[in-house]
Amino acid sequence: MSTITSNNIANSSGITDENISFSKTWCEKQVIKGFSSICYYGTLTYTPSRCSNCGFTSETVKIIKYGTKLSRITLTKSANLPTYLFLKKQRFYCEGCHTTFTASSSLVKRNCFISKRVIQAISSEGQFISSEKDIAYRHSVSPTTVNRAIHQWSHQFKPSYGSLPAHLSMDEFKSVKSADSQMSFIFTDARKHEIMDILPTRRLHHLKDYFLNYSYEARASVKTVVVDMNAPYTSLIRDVFPKAIVIIDRFHLVQLVMRSLNQTRIKLMNRYNTSRPEDKKIYRKLKSYWKLLLKNKTELSDSDYRYQRLFKGPKSSMGIIDYIMTLDVEFKATYQVAQNLLVAVQHKNISAYQTLVLSENKLISPQMKRSLRTLKKYLPEIANSFKYNDSNGHLEGINNKIKMIKRISFGYRNFTNFRNRILLGFNNKRVAS
């Protein structure tokens, strides 16, 4: 066979082992497992330097050829068709230990019938949002093989208990049913946005035991930790990170305030849910313009008039808000407090924020009063969020992708499998073969 043909075979099939030679009918189409497939035919043989069983060299004992063994090896797809290599592997007999062994190839691992390139391709594709069953179908292997390949890669990820990033972010997400309260704990590097580890539980004593595995020097090197308004996390940080500053994520405090405002709107809206036609009109307006009420006031316009069906005429967004403010004194006071808090957070005005949180406002709704008590409780940690730019925004994005992986895969039962898939999905480095 010419050199050009051999190179063509190597390029088209990815078979680069020099010890593999091809027969005259080196390629043909066959139906395998009900699919039209491309099949290559080759022979693997060489002169072994030593016995793989006893270790004696061929110079010490006699090693003779002892027939062949046929293997069907799964290769990466060619022309979008399943591709296989029917390989006759040379068997050898060692007269020193009276045992036989089979020739090995760089194409596959020992006792494996799936090429290294396929395993690498599976691991690479596992970085994207796709179910393991779909990945298995695309590579002509079983879902178990895909799961095994992902699990095999996960051994590359081992937490280093000797060091920690200077800036951390912590959160939890809905995990598998076997996890404690179906919630798992995740923490990341707040600056590089890399996942450090995922734990099956968010229980305080389990988290404390985990972080105490890190050396004191590593824990003392942590400068800031960004969390949501979760009391156990703040106590955990004080216990395990002696020099860390706790930062409450700004998104969560805005979310808390806006949720209270929305609850107040719903309470007012239900008050107008009567059989009276005039009340019903107000009810529909409060129900329809809920998004407008949750918007930052700076985004509203008092000059852009558009036809509003519920007002039966042109109305600006600011005009709609002004109308709603006339409906109830409590809602108006609650809305003003929420907007003032938004402005204080937006401009990082800590003095204005503290004034709003600490001052008593009897006119606001009970829902907003409860939220202000929570903000008052975490005031020192929230004040740190005005000084530092770190946030859990990237972690919220990670949690959203985790939800997508879980939904596409129709859920996971085993936490280890779920964790491995998440870690692979957020691995930005090239997967090693």
From TrEMBL:
| Pfam families on file | DDE_Tnp_ISL3
Instruction: List, for all copies, the residue spans of the domain called Transposase IS204/IS1001/IS1096/IS1165 DDE.
Output: 168-422
Which domain of life does the UniProt lineage start with?
Bacteria
Q: Which InterPro entries match?
A: Transpos_ISL3, Transposase_DDE
Positions of transmembrane segments: none
Q: What is this protein called?
A: ISL3 family transposase
Organism of origin: Brochothrix thermosphacta
